Amino acid sequence: MVDDHELFRESLAHLLAAEAEFQVVAHVPSVEQAAAVLGKQPVDVVLLDFDLGVQRAPQFLERIRALPVQPRILLVTAGIVPLDAAALLNDGVAGIFLKHSSPGLLIDVIRKVHAGETWVDQRCLRDLAKAVVQPVRHASERQFTERERDVLRGVFEGRSNKEISAALGISESSVKAAIQQLFQKTGVRSRSQLVRTALERFSGEWE
What we know:
Blueprint: H1 6-17, H2 31-40, E1 45-48, E2 51-52, E3 55-56, H3 57-63, E4 72-77, H4 82-90, E5 95-98, H5 103-114, E6 119-120, H6 122-139, H7 146-156, H8 161-168, H9 172-186, H10 191-202
Parallel strand pairs: 1-4, 4-5, 5-6
Antiparallel strand pairs: 2-3
Helix pairs in contact: 2-3, 4-6, 6-7, 7-8, 7-9, 8-9, 9-10
């Protein structure tokens, strides 16, 4: 764990230590200390805060690029703006978890990230959707149909197929077909990969 708040680190370390399959290797407040730990032994998952006082998460990511084995990175933060979230996801962060969520959910998300999944808090996804929808519509005019763009926005907002179909007034089978078309056009196989690919392609247009 890399977080500059000692009380939070201590509390979370005790929480995770109670889980049989977890071993807390270390919890440190700075990029330098984290890099020192990772330089001595491989770690499966790093829980990384965005704001580390005088340092920030991007500095940590830059510091560990040379490691022979890259850990999975789960950002655990109080809040983050869409541009920073998109940049970190593009830079290899496997998930974004907001600190006001439940401890039980955090444990579940750590398992998902360790298993190779990408996980982003639904509130963070909604903020990303608001920021990305206009660039996506502009940049993808000829690539995506209007329905595909509307369905893509629903995916960004974390909605299920049923919720997207209700919002757009179309059948669930039509939503599924649109998602499959999006998968084919972007070359991905899952909703999380679709979100990541859309961010990679269009986040540069937000700046």
